[in-house]
Amino acid sequence: MNPLRAESATRAWDDVLAGLRAMPNELEATLRVFPAALLVWQPESWGGSPAENFSALGHACHLRDIEADGYHVRIRRLLEESGPSLISIDGYELAAARRYHEADLSLALRAFGESRRTTIDMLRGLSPAQLDRTGTFAEYGRLTLRALVHYLRSHDQQHLSGLQWLLGKMASSGALPA
To answer: pLDDT digit string (tens) for 115-170?
Structure first.
């Protein structure tokens, strides 16, 4: 590989890992904007939402659960199995079963932060050969572990966008205090 290309790929990987590390703080900062009384607020219409249709509390719980039940399992399987078939998790079924609307936000944030640290520990120090291990992931098709990590970061960003979208809906409806 061209040395400049290798350096660029290393920098991109480092940036993705830095983004993953920062996510628990980004999530907490975004959620601090929501008044406690509006943590389970939902709009009349979800048209245009960039993420799943969750309340602010639901986004936090979803991130917590998908990190541990989804991404930890997928990373382990890609590292330990040959060409595993990775499944998607129905976030709405999980939300109903785990009663997201009744969850404690501080506990959800703490659990997400701990799970994210575990994710970073799982990824730290992996060799290029490990990052290039492949499997098939539901609607994404064939992918490498490296690609899965990029999808995880994209998932983070979708939920941060979804929270900003909720704030916009609240502001438009008059639900968000000035």
So the answer is: 999 999 999 999 999 999 999 999 999 999 999 999 999 999 999 999 999 999 99
pTM: 0.94
DSSP states of 8-66 = HHHHHHHHHHHHHHHHHHHHHHHHTTS-GGGTT---S--TT-SS-S--HHHHHHHHHHI
Please give the C-alpha separations between residue 124 and each of 50, 102, 154, in angstroms, as whole numbers: 30, 35, 19
In whole angstroms, give the CA distance from residue 24 to residue 55. Answer: 17
CB 56 within 8 A of CB 42: no
Delimit the domains of the chain by residue range: 10-173
Q: What is 10-173's CATH topology? A: Four Helix Bundle (Hemerythrin (Met), subunit A) (1.20.120)
